[in-house]
Write a structure and sequence with these properties.
The protein is α/β, with parallel strands linked by helices. The protein has eight helices and seven strands; from the N terminus they run βαβαβαβαβαβααβα. It has helices at about 15-35, 50-60, 75-85, 105-115, 130-145, 165-170, 180-185, 210-225; strands at about 1-10, 35-45, 65-70, 90-95, 120-125, 155-165, 190-195. Strands 3-2-1-4-6-5-7 form a seven-stranded mixed beta sheet, with helices on both faces.
């Protein structure tokens, strides 16, 4: 079995070394215990800092690390689809580069994949979030689930394991403006949800401003609302 881990990166110089070392340790120990192979695919989304240089050094130090480099910043959605197209795994994990998605959950995800689940989904609680952010998130999901044709769950994002069957289903959907939160729900398949404690960034700053989050939310409403006229 080959397990691929996709990590989109944008200006993550402050944390990327810790991320690949933590991932390598977690995956190496679990792969050795259960006798499978793994690859770590970092997608540099046009970073303006030295993220790419650090990834090149990481790939030299660790044979399981691969990297993809964009000519400019195309956005996380493009980074995820590039990683999915490149990944050769029987199953694929998608996670953020800032360690807010704990790598220590991946072995448990793999266990459920081996039990027959096509999507093993990580759901974070909102412990430690500001009250305003929590209120806005709850309002967003309430509005979205009233309007759109797929069910989205508060706390569920991109951090998940996908079987090869689920990956192929996603790759067959060639939307120009992708909204992965909706697409993950749209493809269906057998799901298992694992909850985890809200994590703070290991270093650096979030790349998601309120304006970007609002734009992303509007894309979702347009993508999955049958009442929208194309």
């Amino acid at each position: 079995m080959l397990v691929s881990v996709i990590v989109p990166c944008f200006n993550e110089s402050a944390v990327i070394d810790e991320t690949w070392k933590t991932l390598s340790k977690v995956m190496g120990e679990d792969a050795g215990r259960r006798n499978y192979d793994y690859e770590l695919i970092f997608v540099d989304d046009g970073s303006s800092d030295d993220t790419l240089a650090r990834l090149k050094r990481a790939a030299h130090a660790c044979s399981q690390i691969r990297y993809i480099s964009f000519s400019r910043n195309f956005g996380k959605e493009s980074a995820m689809i590039a990683g999915l197209e490149y990944a050769g795994g029987d199953c694929v994990v998608i996670m953020d580069a800032d360690l807010q998605h704990p790598p220590q959950m991946i072995p448990e995800m793999i266990t459920y994949y081996q039990e027959g689940y096509d999507q093993v989904i990580a759901k974070r609680n909102r412990k430690g979030d500001k009250k305003r952010a929590t209120l806005m998130a709850r309002l967003y999901y309430k509005v979205v689930n009233h309007i759109v044709d797929v069910k989205m769950v508060d706390g569920v994002g991109d951090f998940r394991l996908l079987s090869r069957k689920a990956v192929n289903a996603l790759l067959s959907m060639r939307e120009y403006n992708r909204f992965s939160k909706g697409l993950f729900s749209w493809i269906g398949f057998k799901e298992k949800i694992l909850e985890y404690e809200n994590q703070q960034r290991a270093a650096g700053e979030t790349k998601w401003s309120f304006k970007r989050l609002l734009s992303y939310g509007i894309d979702g409403l347009i993508s999955f609302n049958n009442n929208c006229v194309s």
